[in-house]
Amino acid sequence: MRIAVDVPHSLRRIALVALCIAATLAAPLRSSRAQSPAPRPEVITGTVKSDSGEAIAASVTVTPAGAGFSAAVTVRASDAGTWTVTMPAANRAAEYYVTVSAIGWIQQRVVAKSNGENSTAPVHVDVVMKRSPVRLNAVRVTAQRRQPPQRDFIGPDVAQTEKGILASSEVFAVADQGDLMGMIAQVPGITITADPTNGLPQFSVLGLSGSQNNVTLNGMQYGGGDVPRDIIGAVRVSSSTYDVSRGGFSGAQLSVTQAPGNNFVNQVVHVTADAPQLQATDRIGRQLGQRYANTQLSGGFAGPFVFDRLFYNVSLQGGRRYSDLA
Q: How far apart are the C-alpha atoms of 128 and 54, rounded to whole Å?
């Protein structure tokens, strides 16, 4: 079933006019939307030269007008004096402040105009700088006197098997003062053995013979059995060390090290005197000549020859002992 509605001719004309008016108003809106593209970044480029035409590798800072320092972009000109800055679309402006600075040159600031919101052409800015000599204040350099390297007096023992002995006459008896075997006899694990050929006594460690030991004086091989009793230094003995910087022995190492000299003067002198009148014995002992006279003179001296440059450390000992014939 169809229903026919008769629309008056006047109403049709009114509807047609309203439709035309609406189309006419919507057309400019669609046209403006189609003609406004998205904003693009703007490129600012240029050169920096001196008034004589010399290229300057200066620092260039471009700041959009009306924006803060946070929107500024800083670049450095090349050796040829050219530079380029790409300003983000969000920071585009109608004007840009270009600041150029370099050491020894007067700072320059110019205003660059934008080529327009829709322009893609770069903005060219050429800056000419003039020299500005900078006078520096006097610079005073004070050199410190070089200190001589410290010599290792008693180095660390990696295996922790080293025993230090004070080479001091107050620690040992008169008979053992300066006697290396007598000084190390107090170290646990050291056994003193007599030489079958009536030579110098030897010491044994871990049951090894004395030929497996090593005796050094200031790092060099030493074949003696005693040192001056007033030596300014130290005596140390180590057994079965695992330190690779030490070698040449499988039993033990007895090392005597003199202390390095310094600017302080150190002097030690000892005199020991024994007279027969101070010794008590019986008639038989006197007949056998057991009473004796003994005089020992020793000293140790250390100090500077030339302050901070040349030092010395010397020790010596001399003595005489005699007794009556039996």
A: 9
